[in-house]
Design goal:
Blueprint (H helix, E strand, L loop, with lengths): L5 H24 L6 E2 H4 L10 E10 L5 E5 L1 H7 L8 E6 L11 E11 L4 E13 L6
Parallel strand pairs: 1-2, 4-6
Antiparallel strand pairs: 2-3, 2-5, 3-4, 5-6
Length: 138
């Protein structure tokens, strides 16, 4: 049987501690204080169970004022227009009185993904409206 010398034991121990710390940091703070971007959740929304925070930009509206679409802010800034083929996250505000929003407003949404029978929707219980980025588009 091969014995490890003390320096190899230390390196192995340090590597294990590092892996444990990185795993714990990811599990506890994977959405951090800033939340997720729209592009981070688009491919598998139900991989994000429970209430989460999502940051994005209001991209479109429907006839129902509480139902609107939110785009990834970085994708919008790169393509420069709202109809560039980027995924628009269906969003339904259920948190009482909808704040005033306009196309191009950056929003921070708190809620959860649900399947409402017509598809996947991000159901928002609260939101903060930030600056409008229309002047930053080409």
């Amino acid at each position: 049987m091969h014995k490890l010398n003390s320096s190899r034991k230390f390196i192995l121990f340090a590597a294990l501690i590092l892996v444990f710390a990185m795993t714990a940091a990811f599990a506890v703070g994977c959405d951090g204080d800033d939340g997720f971007s729209v592009s981070e959740v688009q491919h598998d929304p139900f991989a994000f169970p429970g209430e989460i925070t999502i940051n994005g930009t209001v991209g479109m509206f429907s006839d129902d004022p509480n139902f609107f679409g939110v785009m990834d802010t970085n994708e919008l800034l790169q393509c420069g227009q709202f109809d560039c083929g980027a995924w628009i996250m269906p969003t339904l505000f259920v948190g009482g009185s909808l704040p005033t929003i306009a196309q191009g407003d950056n929003v921070v949404l708190n809620g959860q993904f649900v399947n409402d029978g017509n598809g996947t929707v991000f159901q928002v219980t609260s939101m903060d409206v930030g600056n409008n980025i229309m002047d930053r588009l080409p």
